[in-house]
Design brief:
about 280 residues, alpha+beta, Immunoglobulin-like, 5-stranded mixed β-sheet, 6 helices, binds copper (II) ion
């Protein structure tokens, strides 16, 4: 009886916690309202199943409790019950999965007018690269990483000369312009995550991953690493500032291009320690 009561209390407590909890999402600052709808849908399905299963357990414990002279019948298999459960589970899982797949396909179908912004992760900081006037990012390669070229940008690629390099500093984005975030890691697994944008994606060494979004609100947003990447993982924070077009242009004017950065010290490029870090991990 006590166990049945505890189970009922768990359900009531969970529902009350949901209704009364002050913990909820940060206000959205991008076009990904779909992500929220998908989460809400998943939440209702899993929440309903959770309540139903726990309440059913409580009912069974109460209804079939031990009574003097009563013996339980052994029934190891019930085809009817099994097929019924299989169908309900399959429908539930499909209902959770299907909307997610539609949203996923939109998430990675980049609109033609999106500007590319490269995010480079390394233990434990964020760097960014914007295409210059040509609108194209130059190629890059982890083997090209040196002290003078910490992001491994290809100096022989004509497209990379005017690329704007934002090394270990804040990224600015103009409001209401779609951006394609091109994600790269130069050591271990990381994950680029800005909670307000409702967007995150793993960054895999040797691979380029991406997603797109349109910032819809100006402000300062925190970038988190959402993939355990070593002892400094918790401190791997960054900042994205969504500016009005004018503020964005002012900021952009102050940034250095790859050509400018690589000019002063062409001599004796040293191999950056980040190349060997990957092996240690
Ligand atoms: Cu990380």
């Amino acid at each position: 009886m006590a166990i049945a009561l505890v189970l009922v209390l768990i359900v009531v407590g969970s529902v009350l916690f949901h209704v009364l909890s002050p913990w909820w999402w940060t206000p959205i600052a991008s076009n990904w309202g779909y992500i929220d709808s998908t989460l809400v849908m998943t939440f209702w399905i899993t929440g309903a199943v959770f309540s139903a299963v726990v309440l059913f357990m409580a009912y069974c414990i109460f209804r079939f409790r031990h009574k003097e002279g009563q013996k339980a019948a052994y029934e190891p298999e019930s085809r009817k019950l099994e097929s019924w459960l299989t169908v309900v589970t399959a429908v539930g899982v499909a209902a959770m999965l299907a909307p997610g797949l539609f949203v996923w396909s939109q998430f990675i179908t980049v609109p033609k007018d999106a500007t590319e912004v490269e995010v480079v992760a390394q233990q434990w900081q964020w760097s960014f690269r914007l295409p210059g006037a040509d609108g194209k990012l130059g190629t890059s390669n982890a083997r090209l990483i040196t002290a003078d070229n910490p992001l491994g940008i290809n100096p022989d690629d004509p497209n990379s000369k005017d690329d704007v390099v934002v090394q270990a500093a804040d990224l600015h984005l103009p409001i209401d312009k779609p951006v394609k975030m091109v994600l790269r890691s130069i050591d271990v697994l990381h994950d680029f995550y800005v909670p307000e944008f409702r967007a995150k994606m793993d960054m895999v060494p040797g691979m380029i991953t991406y997603f797109w979004f349109t910032p819809t609100r100006t402000g300062t947003f925190e970038v988190l690493c959402a993939e355990l990447c070593g002892v400094g993982h918790a401190f791997m924070r960054g900042t994205v500032l969504v500016d009005s077009e004018q503020d964005y242009q002012t900021w952009l004017q102050q940034q250095a291009t790859f050509a400018q950065l690589s000019q002063p010290s062409k001599v004796g490029a040293l191999v950056a320690p980040s190349a060997s870090k990957a092996k240690v991990q």
